[in-house]
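Handout for the seminar on molecular recognition.
Each group receives one record of this type.
Step one: identify the two inputs.
Step two: read the structure output and locate the region that could contact NAP.
Step three: write two sentences on what you found, then compare them with the reference statements printed after the record.
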Amino acid sequence: MTDNASNDFSLPVAGVPAGPLAGRVAVITGASAGIGAATAHRFAAAGAAVALLGRRSGLLEDLAATLREEHSAEVLPLAVDVTDPAALTAAASTIRAALGRPDLVVANAGVMLGAPFDEADTAEWDQMIDVNLRGLLATGRAFIADLLDAAEAGRAADLVNLGSIAAEVIFADYPVYGATKAAVTQLTRNLRASLGPRGVRVRSVDPAFAITELGAGMAHEATRVGLAEMRSAITTITAEDVADAITYSVAVPARINIAALTVVPTQLG
Ligand SMILES: NC(=O)c1ccc[n+]([C@@H]2O[C@H](COP(=O)([O-])OP(=O)(O)OC[C@H]3O[C@@H](n4cnc5c(N)ncnc54)[C@H](OP(=O)(O)O)[C@@H]3O)[C@@H](O)[C@H]2O)c1
């Protein structure tokens, strides 16, 4: 494998079209908000062409317009629900035709719907399993041939899975969210073993307390209030902080896999 990735690790500068991700074609799920949107900004600023996936097409269109204006980036917004594997497969074809074969996929779409086990609306459990686990699997599968193709050609190829510290840390009212994220962690380890030898870098990025929309839609009011209290008790981090870590990890030379990244408020230890 050649070592084609740039050695320029400086953080992207707004308005500069070329950068450490120039020539790369990125796909980000959950790009309409939070960490996904922040990562789209960083990738576009670093020179990548970026496909923006999510359900809220208006937000995706707005973000695309901003990225084109601020970074002269090639951007493709696509309304896709990651729980629909056929929609992901169709999106993959559209992206190949418009931007070229993706070599950088961020499976970021996720939902966090906490509640005590005995009070939870089980439809929320289904939603977390469908988006956080089935959706992440379907995302990787839709683009794996592209990633393997890039790796075979000696280019950097990345599959970044968004996990969470909830995979390891115990939060009493988030048993199913934690279970989906623990599954992401173990899935990612296994994929590293199978895809790493074939040149695809698979990694998990595990954030905590980045202030985004995450959790805003949960039905259980006391858990929602509890989340706001936990957030206000510490100095939290931002979606951009997580995006910077992701961008660094995909810009290092192809021989290196920064295989797991934990990005948390310093106060959390
Ligand atoms: N923020 C944190 O501190 C933190 C901590 C640990 C882990 N994470 C993980 O980081 C990832 C991003 O979270 P965030 O904090 O940025 O949350 P967010 O602000 O709520 O954004 C979540 C994104 O996922 C998308 N999404 C949800 N369901 C979807 C579906 N069915 N199909 C397609 N897209 C869907 C949403 O877009 P649409 O609504 O437009 O579809 C949105 O763009 C998640 O996997 C989350 O579990 C975040």
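Reference statements: The pocket of NAP is lined by residues 29-30, 32-36, 54-56, 81-83, 108-112, 131, 135, 162, 164, 207-210, 212-214, 239 (CB under 6 Å). The chain has seven helices and seven strands.
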